[in-house]
Amino acid sequence: MANNQIKKIGVLTSGGDAPGMNAAIRAVARTCATNGIECVGIKQGYKGLLEEDFEELTPRSVGNIINRGGSFLRSARCKEFKYPEVRQKAADNARKAGIDALVVIGGDGSFTGALKLQQETGIPVMGIPGTIDNDIYGSDYSIGFDTAINTAMEAIDKIRDTAAAHDRIFFVEVMGHGSGYIAVYTGIATGVEQIIMPPKKDEENHSIIPDSDELYDDIVKDLREAEGRKKSSSIIIVSENGQNIGERVRIITEEVKKRMPDKDIKETTLGHIQRGGSPTTADRVLATRLGTAAVEGLLAGERGKIAGVRDNKIVYTPLRDNTKPYDLTNDFDVKRTHDTIEEFRRVANIMNS
Q1: Which residues are catalytic?
Q2: Whole-structure pTM over 0.85, yes or no?
């Protein structure tokens, strides 16, 4: 499809919601209008594409949404989209509605679906990273991450007050799936005593490996050492296991209680509060930049890419099939993420000494 043949662009939000998605939708719609292109909002992600649940977006209809959390188009996970015949139906519906290209705001799973849609049906797609987990290759930051870490920081600051007042130990679980970014950023910002990173996965079947007695013993050892330094209260951040919210922190807390019966130990799961709320300045600006870049990239001939930021500059990175395993030794983005996490963990350990 020639660039000048794009007359209508569809935009959808898919997967878990993230603060700033509305700002990205607004930017897509207004950039389309500036370039004389129609914009169609697709409700409830790929599900809306299958059900033909569309809404025309104009500069006025997306007014006053930049400050709102969530997604006014609503978001959903569509398990059926993994089947080729379902993706073909989605493409047929898009073409019937006159949609020439698609902007997908979401995470890895959403981008895998977008890539396959383009490969199988020829519909041009562009991804915008929208997830609080900040685990998208091709961009230093994803929409929603900054708001999530600020929400977690404010909550943990409040927990610190009550922990200190009662000489308590608190285990606080944060989201982040398997990346650990929320844990390390929030941990450094709040000065927590320990950060428990995401659990490891079995290399063969990718299942979560249960935490070991060695981990529990190390936690207790560090807490006893802190006690020896006259610390009367502590906060430990626990990364979720990526499957059942609150499960990992509950098990860790129970195991540590068995080993420290003399201590008042509590657990808190921040949960979905990290996904909600008005987006921060950083997320609003990032979302606006990426929404604009997504449309401009499509018009410039970019196809099957992610509009992201690296070193504060807009970059376009090819979408990839995220069902395939990463190779840490050969994949620049994955290695860069790994190195960043390791640096942050080192800094956190120094600050907790």
Answers
A1: 133
A2: yes
